[in-house]
TrEMBL record:
<dbReference type="GO" id="GO:0030313">
    <property type="term" value="C:cell envelope"/>
</dbReference>
<dbReference type="InterPro" id="IPR028082">
    <property type="entry name" value="Peripla_BP_I"/>
</dbReference>
<protein>
    <submittedName>
        <fullName>Sugar ABC transporter substrate-binding protein</fullName>
    </submittedName>
</protein>
<dbReference type="GO" id="GO:0030246">
    <property type="term" value="F:carbohydrate binding"/>
</dbReference>
<feature type="signal peptide">
    <location>
        <begin position="1"/>
        <end position="19"/>
    </location>
</feature>
<comment type="similarity">
    <text>Belongs to the bacterial solute-binding protein 2 family.</text>
</comment>
<dbReference type="InterPro" id="IPR025997">
    <property type="entry name" value="SBP_2_dom"/>
</dbReference>
<dbReference type="Pfam" id="PF13407">
    <property type="entry name" value="Peripla_BP_4"/>
</dbReference>
<keyword id="KW-0732">Signal</keyword>
<feature type="domain" description="Periplasmic binding protein">
    <location>
        <begin position="43"/>
        <end position="296"/>
    </location>
</feature>
Length: 322
């Protein structure tokens, strides 16, 4: 009888142990499942984190990523491609699952692209193309050629007799190169003479300094084209300091600051080839999640650009980006 009781107790003990084991296994499975639902790490880098255009893109990307329970780790190389490469390598060491990348230099960023490829990390390249697009999974960006072209077309319409102009570009930024080409193509054969074309690196202070020097040498220019809005605003500060009254200044972005100048009705800013950083950010995040979910994506996703002037700026407002 005693043996039977002991045998029954042993059986009960074994059953309890098995039940506990199953319970722990179930908890572990639940925890694993929860991890699958979130916890991805996304890297983010852009050429200049202080540029309001990129600030808006980063903020919008972060909002979208965090809505999915994921994390966006951002770095700012401040237009230094060597630093950008180091920062990307650091992001890889932090175990990122994917990379949103806007290069400080289209060619110079190659070592970072090699490192990402070796680590098997997908890249969504946004706003400015890298030189070798074979590294990236997809590209999301504005129709930059058209953004410059609409500015040039507007200039031709307003100054049909042509004149001397200054172009402030940035040869290492493919987006600005495309904008400049669009602008120059639009004014070709229309009586305009480019008396100076210099690299302002998309930076307001640098553009202001360059424009100050150029306007001393060429005070009779009728227009200035800047490769982005900060460049145009730098040129504006220089033109105002030089006392110019009849110089038409164009930028590209459609930033709140440039729209405020247009809305004032008393600025030398004449127009901007507008783009939407919000749309670029949203599409980039959408495409990246498609990539991670093993869905087919296109090589390129162009985002519309258009001209904003004093005539239509009220349609877009001056408090934020379109």
């Amino acid at each position: 009888m005693k043996k039977k009781v002991i045998s029954m107790l042993l059986c009960i003990s074994m059953v309890a142990a098995l039940a506990a084991g199953c319970s722990q296994g179930s908890k572990k499975s639940d925890s694993s499942e929860a991890k699958k639902e979130g916890g991805r790490k996304f890297g983010y880098t852009c050429m200049d984190g202080t540029n309001p255009f990129f600030v808006t893109i980063e903020d919008e990307m972060r909002k979208k990523v965090e809505e999915n329970g994921d994390e966006l780790i951002s770095v700012d190389p401040a237009n230094d491609v060597s630093l950008q490469i180091q920062q990307v390598e650091d992001l890889i060491s932090q175990g990122i699952d994917a990379m949103f990348l806007n290069p400080a230099e289209a060619e110079g960023i190659l070592p970072a692209l090699d490192a990402l490829k070796e680590a098997g990390i997908p890249i969504v390249n946004f706003d400015t193309e890298v030189a070798d697009m074979s590294y990236v999974t997809s590209y999301v960006g504005s129709d930059n050629y058209n953004a410059g072209k609409v500015c040039g077309e507007d200039l031709v319409k307003k100054l049909p007799d042509g004149g001397k102009i200054i172009v402030l570009d940035s040869p290492t930024m493919n987006s600005v190169v495309d904008r400049t080409n669009g602008f120059l193509d639009a004014i070709e054969g229309k009586g305009f003479e480019v008396v100076a074309q210099q690299d302002a690196r998309g930076n307001l202070e640098k553009a202001m300094g360059i424009a100050e020097d150029l306007l001393q040498a060429h005070p009779d220019v009728v227009a200035i084209f800047g490769g982005n809005d900060p460049t145009a605003l730098g040129a504006l500060a220089a033109a105002n300091a030089a006392g110019l009254k009849d110089c038409l200044i164009y930028g590209v972005d459609g930033s709140p600051d440039i729209k405020a100048e247009l809305a004032s009705g008393k600025s030398l800013i004449e127009g901007t080839g507008a783009q939407s950083p919000v749309d670029i950010a949203d599409k980039s995040v959408e495409v990246m999640y498609m990539v991670l979910d093993k869905k087919k994506v296109e090589d390129r996703y162009p985002v519309e650009t258009f001209l904003i002037t004093a005539d239509n700026v009220k349609e877009f407002g001056t408090d934020g980006w379109q």
